Amino acid sequence: MIYLKLFLVLFFITFITFIYRYSQAKENYNEITKLKEEFISWIQDTDLPKPSNAVFTRLYHQMYGTKERSMRQYKGNSALLVSENIDVVGSFPTMNSQVLSQILFILDNMESHYFDKLIELKKKSYWIKFIIFIPSEISSYLGIKTESIFSKIMIFLYWLIPIIIGVFNSDIRDFFIDIFKV
């Protein structure tokens, strides 16, 4: 009976997590695809509305963990050459020819990344790994590094406690009955 309850709780957590992660991945993929199409259309016709820098920055930050990507831009003539750093992410959308290729490269990369993420969430191996390492997932949501000792102890206890409950089920029940006897 206790295993059924544990299984149902585990199934419920996994199901809710699947729905959340899949909807996030689908939304991110749709957003980056739409943003890429809008950007390419905007390059061809600047009278169209500009693509959103906020969406680009948010998706870039989710993927790369940073909100900026700088590159060196050169300008001048043969007598004088000046270089300066440009924030590619912050300057989105732009018509600057030196930055344009970087932005298209980033958009292609992000579209591939979010598509792969969507496909990964459909694989059984991803969810088996998720179930095995639920304590690590929970600790990462709490901001604790998954490689920490605390996280590894949680995984160990996650697997040890059901075994102990299974082996000593009647002894544990009798112990609690004796404690709470009136």
Brief characterization of the structure:
The chain has 182 residues and is mostly helical.
Structural summary, described in words:
This protein is mainly alpha-helical. The chain has helices spanning 2-44, 53-64, 97-120, 124-132, 134-141, 149-167, 169-179; strands at 70-76, 81-87. A two-stranded antiparallel sheet has the order 1-2. The radius of gyration is 26 Å and the shape is elongated.
Instruction: Kindly name the structural category.
Output: mainly alpha
Q: Helix coverage percent of residues?
A: 55-70%
Strand fraction band? 5-15%
* Average of pLDDT: 81
The string of secondary-structure elements, in order, is HHEEHHHHH
Biggest sheet, in brief?
A: 2 strands, antiparallel
Topology:
Blueprint: H1 2-44, H2 53-64, E1 70-76, E2 81-87, H3 97-120, H4 124-132, H5 134-141, H6 149-167, H7 169-179
Antiparallel strand pairs: 1-2
